[in-house]
Amino acid sequence: MSRAPFLRRAVSAVFPDRGTPARLNRQGLRRSLRRWRRRLKRIRPFGGLGDRLMGRMPKGLFARSILIVVTPIVILQAIVAYVFMERHWQLVTERLSQSLTGDIAALIAVIERYPHEPGYLDVTRLAADTFQLTVSILPPDPLPPPVPKPFFSLLDHTLSEQITQVIGRPFWIDTVGNSDLVEIRIRLDDVVLRVFAPRRRAYASNSHIFLVWMSGSALILLAIALLFLRNQIKPIVALAYAAESFGKGRNVENFKPRGAREVRQASQAFLDMRERIERQIEQRTTMLSGVSHDLRTILTRFRLELALLPEGEESQAMQNDVEEMSRMLEDYLAFAKGDAGEETEAVVLPDLLETLADHARRSGDAVVLNFSGEPEIHVRPTALARCISNLLTNAAKFADRVEISATHRDGILEITIDDDGPGIPDEDKEAVFRPFYRLDDARNVDVGGTGLGLAIARDIARSHGGDIALEDSRLGGLRAVVTIPA
Known about the structure:
Elements: H1 4-14, H2 26-42, H3 49-55, H4 61-113, H5 121-131, E1 134-138, H6 154-166, E2 171-174, E3 181-187, E4 192-198, H7 208-247, H8 261-308, H9 313-337, E5 345-348, H10 349-362, E6 366-373, E7 376-379, H11 381-398, E8 401-409, E9 412-419, H12 453-463, E10 467-472, E11 478-485
Parallel strand pairs: 6-8
Antiparallel strand pairs: 1-4, 2-3, 3-4, 5-7, 8-9, 9-11, 10-11
Helix pairs in contact: 4-5, 4-6, 4-7, 7-8, 8-9, 10-11, 11-12
Organism: Afifella marina DSM 2698
Enzyme class: transferase
Keywords: ATP-binding, Cell inner membrane, Cell membrane, Kinase, Membrane, Nucleotide-binding, Phosphoprotein, Transferase, Transmembrane, Transmembrane helix, Two-component regulatory system
């Protein structure tokens, strides 16, 4: 029997807006499925409760691991406590209360059925010898007002329920006043029966030991789990620190793969990657050193040959070309080499900035310097100096006034360089960091340069784990903001 009619009817029932089964085709079915998928994606289960819970989840791996361990323990303890309270503790307390209530009912029957001597001495002896109860007969005064009960009083609730069901007379109980005894008063026809019963006769007083043991064992298990979790998290934290330090150009000498197999594999992969990168950098540096030596040799030969020529306009123009080629070569090599090979060291930042500012002032630029925060920082000094120098040179080319503001607080170094030049359009503020990129308007090629200054500066900042952003300056020109974690 063919299933086609059944499938057509099923499709028609699920997607009634697609027309009759005869008109349904594969393309229409796909469109309907896509539409229903989009509708289902827009449904937010539990009113977005899941999103709110995820937003409040701990961010760290250690905290999330603790939550994963603690949550099942808490749920299990709650279930066990509920079952224990519901099935055991309450049942035991109920049966003890039934026994005590039955004894009191027997005493009431004796009092009402048989004559007694004054003082009801026979009843008190019977209660003490047979039921271990202390009984006294009081005048028929009104019962005391109810005693305030604890928030959770299983004994009060169970005992009151049993007295109501078995005895059915007005009563008053006090389970709070004396920790070892339970006082019960029951109003009879012409007297009030007062009974003092040991608490253990109506209440499973040792049941809390189980709860204490359960809570204590849970805390011990949790402490052991936290100890093991911390030891498992340490290698991951060490790997993250080593990767971050390597990204900032710092070398972690004592880093070794530790922890679980997967963590050791990730650590070993990081070490292999670091070794390959360092080997490539070393090979590139060696190659560039050889190229730079050969090119400088040729330029030196040009200078010597030009020095032997008679002075004139042509020789001077050739001399300028050689100097320009030398500057371009230095920029190209600096961009290609980056800051490879330089180690980080402690630098007094105000002294470094003041040296760069003085150098700019000697060139005729008006430079103002302001610094605040912690003076010492661990960076690659030569690379950082080149980064700031490139930004200063770029600002001084197009402006009459340059201001440097630097702050170093909470592990963040921020250097701001403002100028009063023509600025850069917003659409070009990111493009100028590309190598050899030149602007065609105010900051143009007429001022010279290779187009690598900003690219080198950003490369240095990023090698320190930071970045450079360009903004509009309050002086009317361009603002360069260097941010480096240190």
